Amino acid sequence: MEILDSTGRIVAKGIVAAGHREAARCAGRHTSETRLEELVHRDDMVVLL
User: In angstroms, what CA-CA distances link 1 with 16, 44, 49?
Assistant: First the structure.
């Protein structure tokens, strides 16, 4: 998964901890609005700066 900043620039990539349907439902929402605690765990993410 690509993680974007507010301007649309890719700032990180990671392995998703859910299926594609669940990930699509979570896209753009705050964690408190989803059933998942996290979509990409920091141990499975690479920050691109």
Answer: 6, 10, 16
pLDDT of residue 27: 83
Is residue 23 helix, strand or coil?
helix
Sequence-separated (6 or more) residues with CB below 8 Å from residue 13: 1, 2, 3, 45, 46, 48
Strand, helix or coil for residue 41: coil
- What average pLDDT is seen over the chain? 90
Prediction pTM value: 0.70
Mean pLDDT of 12-25: 90
For the chain, the domains span 2-47
